[in-house]
Write a structure and sequence with these properties.
Helix content is 39%, strand content 16%. With 477 residues, the chain is α/β, with parallel strands linked by helices. Among the domains are: 170 residues, AglA-like glucosidase (LDH C-terminal domain-like); 127 residues, no CATH class. Helix 5 packs parallel to helix 6 and helix 8 crosses helix 9. The longest helix is centred in the first third of the chain and has 25 residues.
């Protein structure tokens, strides 16, 4: 099991370590701005960031923004930013590669969410599993093959940090294309669970005051967005033991009515599903309720979309997934001087991870990495999510143990589907891909309806499926 004392702090070397970062998806209005923010506040790394994006204009604006931020007096980081039209150039000689892409564009989300609803299949996120997650995976695999091949050619020793969903499939595709790649997947899903345990420490432990998230040590195991925690400690105190008391305090978990959350954010999470899973299986779901419900068939078995509010969450409409008006407008305000780029504590860990892998101390966090035995019962080589120690150009997964039999069975279904999708993506085999699609727990319609739904989604997005052999498929017209 994962046991560790206080996490070691990075040890500055006395001068900035120089590294080169290649950023795939460098036109991002989310992760790119977070990276600029965090690098500007990092005194012991320095270097260059080369931004590549299919939207070169947005990558160029991010480069301009990054250089302006670094020129500010309060920026302690020493970084230069440049945009390029070539992924080869972005990765040439890179020490680190960051991937945060959404290509093809967001309108594919409309199909992924809305078309399954025509068949009575509802999804809260649609980017990891279920019909939407499977189709998104099939679109992403050829892109990640291309990224891995470019890493192999241009920077084979680089560490690749992937933020893109579906996290497990994308990270797994990198290793399938280039087995010697150094790649990890990062997701902030467990942070909220650490915050939950921090609140519980303050509630149930007398001497605990103002407990920070990073003071909580959790034992993480599972696959991305279907992650579980069975240990939680604050200093030398067991916080997990208070879950039964916290569960009783929160009951009844499902006392909301349809319409109760109409005024709430689409991203609302009341942790009712996480506690219900704990109540049933003895381990706490640690990925946020909107993700957790998509991995099992029962919470989303609803007749009316508003019924999902019973579980303290909302369905995310496709319109919310493609509306990005605030991002570019905010960028223009930054560049025109109408708004200041405010430094903040982002809570993200990419810079801490790069610092550790560059030899500036050690760092422990949860991440996605091929299974070397850190999760008992799941296949070797499958990408799993556990804690790991990062230090001196090395990642050491920490043993997390196994899962309860029933939970392991549920997780194994998704591992099998993910592995099948990766194989289908590499073989260009849509019929094999449909086997995984049909095996998704959310695909609760008849076999013929499932095939019709799959064919409709693929046809609607056919321009993004050029790597697949339509002529050899039963889906052919």
């Amino acid at each position: 099991m994962y046991q560790l004392s206080e996490q070691a702090e990075p040890v500055p070397s006395g001068s900035s370590r120089t590294i080169d970062i290649g950023y795939i998806g460098g036109g991002s209005q989310g992760w790119a701005h977070t990276l600029i923010n965090d690098l500007a506040q990092c005194p012991d790394l320095a270097g260059s960031v080369t931004l590549y994006d299919v939207n070169y204009e947005m990558a160029s604006k991010n480069a301009l923004l990054g250089n302006r931020v670094m020129d500010r007096e309060e920026a302690v980081g020493d970084w230069s930013f440049e945009a390029t039209r070539s992924m080869d150039k972005a990765l040439d000689g890179a020490d680190f590669v960051i991937c945060s892409i959404q290509d093809p564009p967001g309108e594919t989300f409309v199909h992924d969410i809305d078309v399954p609803q025509e068949y009575g299949i509802y999804q809260t996120v649609a980017d990891t599993v279920g019909p939407g997650g499977a189709i998104r995976a099939l679109r992403a695999i050829p892109q990640y093959r291309d990224i891995a091949a470019t890493v192999r050619e241009r920077c084979p020793d680089a560490w690749v940090i992937n933020y893109t969903n579906p996290m497990t499939v994308c990270t797994r595709a990198l290793y399938e294309e280039f087995p010697d790649i150094n790649a990890i997947g990062l997701c902030h899903e467990v942070f909220k669970t650490q915050e939950l345990f921090a609140d519980m420490a303050e509630r149930y432990i007398d001497e605990a005051e103002d407990v920070a998230r990073d003071e909580i040590r959790v034992n993480v195991k599972g696959v991305n967005h279907f992650t579980w925690v069975d240990e939680a400690r604050w200093r030398d105190r067991d916080v997990f033991q208070y879950l039964d008391e916290e569960l009783d305090r929160r009951k009844p978990l499902f006392d909301r009515e349809p319409g109760d959350l109409d005024g709430e954010s689409y991203w609302v999470n009341n942790e009712a599903v996480a506690f219900d899973l704990y109540d049933r299986f003895g381990v706490l779901g640690a990925a946020g309720d909107r993700h957790l419900v998509e991995f099992v068939p029962w919470y989303l078995s609803i007749d009316d979309p508003e019924e999902i509010q019973r579980y303290g969450i909302r369905l995310t409409p496709s319109s919310a997934r493609v509306s990005d008006d605030e991002g570019p407008d905010e960028m223009e305000r930054y560049l025109e001087g109408d708004a200041a780029f405010e430094f903040r504590e982002s809570g993200e860990e990419a810079v801490d991870i790069m610092r550790a892998l560059a030899g500036e101390g050690t760092f422990v966090t949860h991440l996605n990495y091929p299974n070397e035995g850190q999760v008992d019962g799941l296949p070797e080589g499958a990408v799993v999510e556990t804690n790991a120690l990062l230090s001196g150009d090395d990642v050491t997964p920490l043993c997390a143990g196994g899962l309860p039999d029933e939970v392991e069975s549920m997780v194994q279904t998704h591992v099998t589907n993910q592995e099948t999708l990766v194989r289908a993506g590499f073989e260009g085999d849509l019929d094999l891909a449909f086997q995984a699609f049909l095996n998704e727990p959310l695909v609760t319609v008849s076999r013929d309806e499932a095939q019709e739904l799959f064919a409709k989604l693929v046809e609607l997005e056919r321009e993004y499926f050029t790597a697949y052999d339509f002529d050899a498929s039963v889906l052919r017209a």
